[in-house]
Amino acid sequence: MGGKAKADNQQMIQFQMQQAAEAKAKEAARQARLNQGKAAIDQLFQGGNFDQGFYDKYKNAALAYNMPQLQKQYQLAKDQMTYDLARAGTLRSTVAGTAQANLQEQQAMNEAAIRSQADQDVGQLRQNIAGQQQSALNQLYATEDPDVAANTATHMVQAAQLSSPNLNPLGELFKPLVIGGTTAIGSYLDNQNFTNYYNNLMAKKPAIATSAST
């Protein structure tokens, strides 16, 4: 009776040890699959697909689109300011220097805003790609299938590589400068400058000249 109980106990111990060994082997196999899948996903997202050059290209595309628009608006605002100064007879006055400084300040602020927005867009892109990487990892941990997770990650990476900045025409960036008049003497001294500039502006910018004639 005692011998049978002892044998049964040994069998139970062996059975438990076998179950523990099988569980350990299964967990090792599971960890191996997860490590394999994670390595594949990390390689896709952290390799050369999304290096600094990728983000620089994205940023430069936005700047290449927006900076020429800024420069064009600046030149138009500068031409209009010069015309208004000439019309008011203040081309040689301190008003002209103040107006120019104001315009340059607006230019600097607008450029800084455009560059800051480009940096923010790059930061958002980084977050989006990091989020996609985490989604691929979550799928891996849920399915424990490295092949499925790697395939999903591959499609995500291919789509993300086509990312481009949202390019829209800039709105009006420069506030009109209020140019006041000056004394009759100042107006007389700038009269010839005004005439020359007005004639040149008419030839270069018919729209402004038409507006002036009305």
Attribute tags:
single chain, 214 residues, mainly alpha, disordered C terminus
Distance between the termini: 121 Å
Structural class from helices and strands?
mainly alpha
Percent strand equals: under 5%
**Low-pLDDT segments, ≥5 res:** 181-195, 206-214
How is the main sheet built?
Answer: none
Q: Helix fraction?
A: over 70%
**Compute the gyration radius: what is it?**
35 Å
Explain the layout of strands and helices.
Blueprint: H1 2-46, H2 52-88, H3 94-143, H4 146-160, H5 184-189, H6 191-204, H7 206-213
Quick structural overview:
By secondary structure, this protein is mostly helical.
Tell me what the structure shows:
The chain has helices at 2-46, 52-88, 94-143, 146-160, 184-189, 191-204, 206-213. The chain is mainly alpha-helical and 214 residues long. The protein has a domain at 33-73 and 94-176. Helix 1 runs parallel beside helix 4 and helix 3 (94-143) runs antiparallel to helix 4 (146-160). The longest helix has 50 residues, at 94-143. The radius of gyration is 35 Å and the shape is rod-shaped.
